[in-house]
Amino acid sequence: MIEDNSLEFDMFEDVRRKLVEFYQREGRERLEAEKIALYLVQGIRETPKLIAMIAEADSHTSKEINDCITSVLENATALEKARAVLLGLEEQNG
């Protein structure tokens, strides 16, 4: 998250904390809730940038757009990790 400005960082950190609280209320252990929240935030953090870039596509080069898409796709693996924890697959796969 080094590229995130302070406001973006604060927003994503707030989302992460709220997700931890949500999953703990749902009966998850704290460590598991932390993992899920971290993976979810990591998986979505580039998406708003992509949406903004596509909305203003005329203002961006093809390289900028492709780099942003690549970043979103690279972080998508974090969503798979969140899914695995949520479904209990992480423990099954060791």
Low-confidence region ranges: none
Largest sheet: none
Tell me the helix content. Answer: over 70%
The shape, in one word, is elongated
* Distinct helical segment count: 5
**Rg measurement, Å:** 15 Å
User: Averaged pLDDT, please?
Assistant: 90
**What is the string of SSEs from the N terminus onward?**
HHHHH
Q: How many E-type strands?
A: 0
What gap, in angstroms, lies between the N and C termini? Answer: 28 Å
Structural class category: mainly alpha
Overview of the structural elements:
The mean pLDDT is 90. This protein is mainly alpha-helical and 94 residues long. The chain contains five helices and no strands. The radius of gyration is 15 Å and the shape is elongated. Helix 2 (30-44) packs antiparallel against helix 4 (62-87).
Short description:
The protein is an all-alpha fold. Helices cover about 80% and strands about 0% of the residues.
Which structural traits does this protein have?
mainly alpha; 94 residues; 5 helices; elongated
Question: How are the secondary structure elements laid out?
Answer:
Blueprint: H1 6-25, H2 30-44, H3 47-55, H4 62-87, H5 89-93
